[in-house]
Amino acid sequence: MARKYDAIVIGGGHNGLVHAAYLARAGLDVCVLEARPLVGGATVTEEIFPGFRYSVFSYVVSLMRPDIIRELDLPRHGLAILPLESTLTPLPDGDRLYRDADHHRTWREIARFSIRDAEAYDEYGRSLFYMARAVKYLLGIAPPDPARLGPRDIRGLLGLARHFLDLQPDQLHLLVKLMTMSAADFVDEWFETDVLKATLSASGIIGTFLGPRSPGTAYVLLHHYMGEIDGHFRAWGFAKGGTGAVANAIASAARQAGAEIRTDAPVARALVKNGRVNGVALANGDELHAKVVSSSLDPHRTFLDLVDADDLPADLVNSVRGYRFRGSSGKVNLALDAAPDFTCMPGHGPHLRGAVSISPSIDYLERAYDDARYGDFSREPYLDIVIPSAIDPGMAPPGKHVMSCFVQYAPYELREGTWDQKREAFGDTVVDTLARYVPNIRNIILHRQVVTPLDIERTTGLTQGNIFQGELTPSQLFFLRPAAGYAGYRTPVRGYYQCGSGTHPGGGIMGAPGKLAAGRVLADLGRRGR
Amino acid sequence: MKEYDAVVVGGGHNALVTAARLACKKWKVLVLERRGVLGGAASTAEIFPGCAVNVAAQDAGLFPASLAADLGLAAHGLEWVHPPALATSLTGGGGAITLWRDPARTRDEIARHSRNDAARFAAWADHLRTMARVLRVALDHPAPALHEMTTRERLRLLRPLIQAGRLGKRTVVELLRVAPLPARDLLDDWFESDALKGMLASTALAGSRHGPSAMAGAFRMLYHATEREPHGFRSSAFVKGGIGALSTALAAAARKHGAEVRTRAEVERILVEEDTATGVALADGEEIAARCVISGADPRRTFFRLVGAPRLGPEFNRQVANIQLCGTTAVLHLLLDGLPPLPDATERLAGHTLVAPTLDYLERAGDDAKYGRASARPHLDMVIPTLHDPTLAPVGRHVASIQIRYAPYHLREGGWQDDGTRDALLASVLTVLDDFLPGMRDRIVDQRLLTPLDLETELGLTGGDECHGQMGLEQMLFMRPIAGWARYATPVEGLFLCGSGCHPGGGVTGGSGRLAAGAILRARKQVARLS
Question: What is the Cα–Cα distance from A10 to A8, expressed in whole angstroms?
């Protein structure tokens, strides 16, 4: 029997849930359909081994929009974000670069390498702060379409022009550099210490199929700088209970607003009749009806899998076919018998409650990229490590730990073999890399979960395992995300909307696409959000 | 002492364009060139006895016909040559694929490699040319100086906007999407043949130290394409008598309007008093006074060597120091006693002959440069000017000039002054030639290698960068040469830039020279109005 809703949201990832919450708060009868038994998409916490809880895919939070946290009252629904205290970059020779919130200690630490860099460090932080603040404006607006130039588009473009021309000239110019340069060149303008440059530019490669010397990575660096926790810029945090706790809090807020959330309910396709959507068909054959259907899946699945290409204009289909995913990262989650012991900072300490970046030099990262460009995973990969159990003891049994290693590069397309054949070799490479800096690692590993880009795709449905639902390159941002002319969350099928990270402003646990898309839906329905 | 309205530092092609333009307006202009020949990187010199060799630049296809006509260059002996082949890419083992000027012939040629690609090629060319036309609008106008514009200037900005808008809003948006793409992505979207993709990607590499996977390669491809040219590939045209003949024609045009052009006159310093340029001092001690000084040298050389950093302020200096100069090209000149044994050699080798067999080949060549090494298997771009002008060499002889990429100016180990480094690069080039143009090596009678360091010392190109600054999006339009100073004026009153370090950028385009002249005339008019 077909049940009728006002709106159906395909996919229960964090963006789908945010979207649903906003629609429900506006009084719509909303249903979220999630294929897996739990909500969250790539934002999940799972107990893969008894007692050890992994944030399987994602690992840190900071981009989550403060307005969403506030409006959905997420802390009341259980969201608690614990700050990451520090960043440690161990070096192969036993030295290290350690930075934390203690300004003087960080200054001294950088000054060990270069006094000039220590002096420049604050100025750099300030500049990026201003840049991030300038760009954050974009996170709150739906992109105008310069090719359509309707009244809303003209208003949007003029607003944009005004916003950016209001910046100081040197800020505007810095912004242009950030949009176009490579992360390595960008930090090169400030610093001379290789390990500092490498660690800073590493945030420019996360989630991309680009190296630190590839132009375009400076923007990704900025994208990762836009985070904000309790008003503190670029503070990365860890959600108590893992990233799944973020999704659960949003789900709880959505439910409270009246949304229904169904798990184990994979959608087979959207039902389209005469250019209008009227519901969805589930994989089990059930049909659910609604005038509004929003897909939080990536553009490939939204346009090529869920609807018939005949219902879409050819230019959209072509653009989506050319839209680039290129998953480039994997994840290795470790259950540990004891705390890892770093050569460069032995024993326990605040460094275990921060991020550990295996990025000893720009060349190191660049070589890791080279391997991937020729179709193999990096022999010496870049690792971005957190030890959630050190911050939130509930993530592992007492005295034991979980360690999350984000690994790059792991190209979705391998030149030889398949990821199913190479999974364990990939895991070994990561452990070997770790062992160079953490000599006790092999002795304390109880369990190992290796997540390849193929696994990401299979489990979460993210095409090619791209964690951002598509690369964050200038050709796929703002009014070009996911395609020129189709960036305003609407689709050519009436009533069918897109609300995932494949739309503006892109990926990360941010929630902005879900919220902006909800604004679009509600405006089209003539309703006001609450 | 005689006072000039303008002294132009350097006799490169852009400097000569500026000089000619100002002379036309009755300015008293003096051009000072350090070398014995004019043209800078666009000069022709006797590198082998009895041979006229294009020292660095080979191709003047981007020099607009309208500018040549404006300056009456034909009357001063400028004669264009358009050989039937635009480019031939060697695919190894004696194979080759040629882009002919004739579209039908090109289609047949591509069809030998891929029928699909041949079928799509006309649409591709159309696509690129449409976008290039929009880009041209931006390159033909002065760069907007977003913050310091008067209402009048803002209104002037409307013209290119309207012009671009008339070419289609969708095209403008498409250009915004395509320009930042890597050459690889753009080409993968269209074609399947490795040979074709490698050849087309070659123009994305010039002016950059990045390989074909780097962002904005498509921008450089579009920069080299103009609507005149049928394939959306690089606009290509040679000059009878060598590319130096373009420069001498420009000088002749300037002289006709009263400009003085002196060679072997090296400017050592730009004289500045109270933040105002007053003239120049030559290496031999002579001082020349002028109401304004216009530098055709690259920005870093102009500000750090000719003016002197202390005069400019720390923030400005920081920006000048951060200009990405990316000398990655070496040039090998070969004197040959005949053509290499390739079928139809006289026809096929008359354009650019490329070693760019696959995108991965180019990628690996670029990888070496990333780590500060010269490519072990470099990308080559060879021109044999004697094929379109036999008078350039004695009878029976040919000259081939090869641009070698990548040969980074900054090497991690050793230096270009070491013979070992030079020999190693030469050996790499010859090995690659053996593989791609067998028999070529046996034709070599004499050779002369110009490393990036040689380009710096002989032509004054800082960092060996023939574009006076990398052609990346971060150094384009209002960011070129540095942010806030894209209008040819400098912090020193009366000192202007006119070289390709300025908007619109590198290549033998005359663009920066032309736009600089316009800016200088406007600035002077303003001064005259105020005083």
Answer: 6
